[in-house]
Write a structure and sequence with these properties.
Number of helices: 8
Oligomer: single chain
Helix content: 40-55%
Pfam families: Acyltransferase (PF01553)
Largest sheet: 7 strands, mixed
Shape: globular
Pathway: Lipid metabolism
Order of helices and strands: HHHEEHEHEHEHEEH
CATH class: Alpha Beta
Number of strands: 7
Keywords: Acyltransferase, Membrane, Transferase, Transmembrane, Transmembrane helix
Number of domains: 1
InterPro entries: Plipid/glycerol_acylTrfase (IPR002123)
CATH superfamily: Glycerol-3-phosphate (1)-acyltransferase
Strand order of the largest sheet: 1-7-6-2-5-3-4
CATH topology: Glycerol-3-phosphate (1)-acyltransferase
GO molecular function, one term: 1-acylglycerol-3-phosphate O-acyltransferase activity
């Protein structure tokens, strides 16, 4: 038996064409809205973030219409009236878009290098993310705690992916404790989020498969009653339990 005969079937032409069409439309949306955001970088934050929200909703609408990929959110009732720290599963680029529609306004914790990406990175910079240098761990943690507390005091959600990088479906990375430290320092709740976006929009994947991404929002964690690592452990336990259920729901 040859190696090619044991490989997975080639994707259908229609799936490739729809994914290519979505990519082209997303680039077009970015090229239209991105420069406007850069030119308005000195405008009030509400104006800049409003432009970012228009980009987010346009991309999500294109994803649904072109690729047939939409999402359902469960647990909206768990979102507290007070903003806080979001600890989310990280499988795909999808959640970096969709979470902005679910929890506005927000500030992402991301790699500094991403802000150097032409147009998209420059536009993202106008929304005041927390851009850290992962190579300088102590300085990055200090920056996260200082800028994160400032963003929280401004009324924004702060989103962290505690696993640090995108993890394929069925796998789990090590959960870092910085999110618990930030929430405890700021005296705000932690909201855990689970989703299975990686099953439809894979890590570093070009193809976007049709379907319904399941997003689950957990009950907020009271950070006044737990130590920083305990907070992260509680979030990890809830997220991974939900991931197991989501995967089971997709089994025939």
């Amino acid at each position: 038996m040859t190696p090619s005969s044991t490989s997975s079937p080639k994707p259908r032409l229609g799936l490739i064409l729809r994914s290519a069409a979505f990519f082209a439309v997303m680039c077009l949306i970015t090229l239209v809205i991105g420069p406007v955001m850069v030119l308005r970088r000195k405008a009030p934050f509400a104006v800049r973030y409003g432009l970012a929200q228009y980009w987010v909703r346009s991309v999500l609408a294109a994803l649904e219409k072109i690729c047939g990929l939409r999402y359902e959110v469960h647990g909206v009732e768990h979102i507290p009236p007070q903003n806080g720290v979001i600890l989310s599963k990280h499988q795909s680029a999808w959640e970096t878009i969709a979470l902005q529609a679910i929890f506005p306004p927000m500030a992402f914790v991301l790699k500094r290098e991403l802000l150097k990406i032409p147009v998209w990175g420059w536009a993202m910079d106008t929304c005041e993310p927390i851009a850290i240098d992962r190579g300088a761990k102590s300085a990055a943690l200090k920056q996260l705690l200082q800028q994160g507390e400032h963003r929280l005091n401004q009324g924004r959600w702060v989103v962290l992916f505690p696993e640090g990088t995108r993890v394929p479906p069925g796998q789990k990375g090590k959960y870092a404790g910085s999110g618990g430290m930030l929430a405890q320092r700021a005296g705000c709740p932690v909201v855990p989020v689970a989703h299975n976006a990686g099953e439809f929009w894979p890590r570093n994947g070009f193809l976007k498969r049709p379907g319904v991404i399941q997003v689950r929002i957990g009950p907020p964690i009271d950070t006044t009653r737990h130590k920083a690592q305990e907070i992260v452990d509680l979030a990890e336990h809830w997220i991974e339990a939900q991931m197991a259920e989501i995967s089971q729901a997709r089994q025939p």
